[in-house]
Predict the 3D structure of the following.
Amino acid sequence: MLEIFTYTFIQNALIAGLIVSIITAIIGSLVVVNKMVFLSGGIAHSAYGGIGLAIFFGLPMLLSTSLFCVLIAMLIARASYDNRENLDMLIGLTWAVGMSLGIILVDLTPGYQADLMSYLFGSLLAVTSTDIYYMALLLLVVLGTLVVFYRDILAVSYDSEYARLRGVNTKFFYTLILVLSSLTIVISIKVVGLILVIALLTIPIYIAGYFAKNLLSMMLMSAGLSIVFTLIGLTLSYSFDLSSGPSIIIVSSLCAFCVYILKGLSKH
């Protein structure tokens, strides 16, 4: 069994899985605590527009999709911060337009025959060294942001009104969390794809939420859980020739279901 770790693509997949697990744990905790799951879902599906642009114009996939998603995140942040009434319509619009734009651009690309399923459901075993460098850079950015702004982010996440009264620029941090979420979504495409990325951002966090005492412990616990789920899912994917993304999500979902049942039984 250990011989599989001698393959370069397996090593790349493991490194990428570990990095993405840590990033999604940190950003996913912020997304869940700030009740931005639906917002992140809209960004995730609109990311297909960035993929379509990259394919049609021959641009670097990660760069093109990242810039597109950051733009979408900033538009959503600006439109939704002071006007929550039309938020559902805004998310639905960006979701539909992004997906439609991506599909049309791919259809218009002459001779393009690549497997688009890898973008929808992930292809962790196809991670390249360039992808890993990008993921590592984002991890440094996320960790740096957390170290520098942790107290402000904590205040905004749990009591934005109090944070505003203290002089914290809540609009800036609201936008920052969405932008970091969009970048996290882009790198997670390689792991679980656009369709399942929200599950990766939320399931470990919900499990950790049963036991965590504060935001930092939630991040640490969910990072550990994400790493375990990714390793088990990757092993199953390789052993049984399954898609890596769905394998990881099934493992994490089964664990979440077991924790939910056990917590329910413990209350009786």
In short: The mean pLDDT is 89. The two ends are 42 Å apart (CA to CA).
